[in-house]
Write a structure and sequence with these properties.
This protein is 27% helix and 28% strand. It has helices at residues 11-17, 64-72, 118-126, 136-143, 145-154, 168-177, 192-195, 207-221, 285-289, 295-301, 331-338, 343-351, 380-386, 432-443, 461-470, and strands at 38-39, 45-46, 53-58, 76-81, 95-96, 109-112, 130-132, 162-165, 182-186, 199-200, 227-231, 236-244, 249-263, 267-281, 305-314, 317-324, 364-371, 390-393, 401-403, 406-409, 412-415, 421-429, 446-447. Helix 4 packs across helix 5 (145-154).
Length: 475
Amino acid sequence: MKNKENNLKHQEEKNNSKNDNAENLPRIEKNADADINSFNGNGKHKQDFPLKKFLFVSWESLSGDLAYQIKKEGHEVKIYVKAESDKDVYEGFLDRVDNWKEHVNWADVVVFDDIGFGNIADSLRASGKLVIGGSKYTDRLEEDREFSQSEMKRVGMSVLTHYDCTSFDEAISFIKENPGRYVFKPSGNTSSEQKGILFMAQEDDGKDLIEILELNKNLWAKKLKRFQLQKMAVGVEVAVGAFFNGEDFIYPINVNFEHKKLFPGDIGPYTGEMGTTMYWSPPNEIFNSTLLKIKENLKDSGYVGYIDINCIANAKGIFPLEFTTRFGYPTISIQIEGVLSEWGEFLYKIANKEKFDLKTKKGFQIGVCVVVPPFPFDDKKEMSIYKDLSILFKKPNLEGIHLGDIKMINGVWTIAGETGYALVVTGSGITLDDARKQAYGRLKNILLQNMYYRTDIGAKWGIESDKLHTWGYIY
């Protein structure tokens, strides 16, 4: 996921949004269908689906790449981004608006691209508006670890043993009395920034975690009121996700493998995500034993959109860790690489609770995040060096090049915002090696001062796939 989610400065606004309801929103009016002529991403006429109007609503600049893809298909698109730090992101690519509520009646579909909009989305759906995005229930699934773990257990998933704490001395005593390897995770309604405080014990008796907690308890106690010690499970970290139309999942599912640390070899700080490998699949054992079990809850909540569950798989079982109840970043850009269906038509129809035969490429897709300083940290002085820096392409070929925090000035792509999260470069192929070669080949076409990225996205697939096949979890 995009690193700026780990440095989120808008949790207060998200929390305030929970008080919004239909009374705060404009009265919904039905839009007539637009002209039946539309275009696909290659600029070719497509006559069988009418043009629609899409309104994207975001706390920060997350979903511009998807919005731009829908615009390239011929639909009308407007986007609202709340963050002042992102006020120039997407300029030259998308039509930005200052007040999204003024455009609700204009839109055929409203797209909320992050958690924190659940109450508003519920109200709009209840009024008859077509909405892609969260619900009050699914917001809580992602925000509150204790709640999500209890829901996983309630519907029959195999959850790891965990202990919920409210004091660091309590946690230290627990580990001493119950020696073992644990993962320390913030819990409750925590901001994305707080969720970045995570530590995995390396010693079998957990003494290294005890030492970390002892040394940092006074500092962390100011930031965390609740946290969780989760029993460590060693295996393959794998996620399965699928789109949901308010009543059922849309197939195929997506199987993906995230690379969360900054440097190759999984070294350095957690960034959220530096790249991902994925493929589309019929339902498999990982999906059936985890995400499928939450189907009725999603239906009852009215959720529409993409949902993903991250797991640890080993010979003993499949253990879910956490939900992502929204588009993933850069996941959605890599999915654009792998989906053959028109995104505008797809999102409109699932928002309307229609079934959809999602067409996807065979084989694999990968995505590599391209960044510049100060990523993954906040440093306005350093960012001032890279702000407005031009991104050049040796050849006029932009296939597989996806928007990060950039804008376009006089036809030239330039760095925007304050994060240094510049581009996502994708590739696909029948084999993962083919997908890697295409993505890293496309990277060589980019000229951007001091850009950096991981060179090992997908490199562990051979080992990981052998294990998952041996355990019978993927086909």
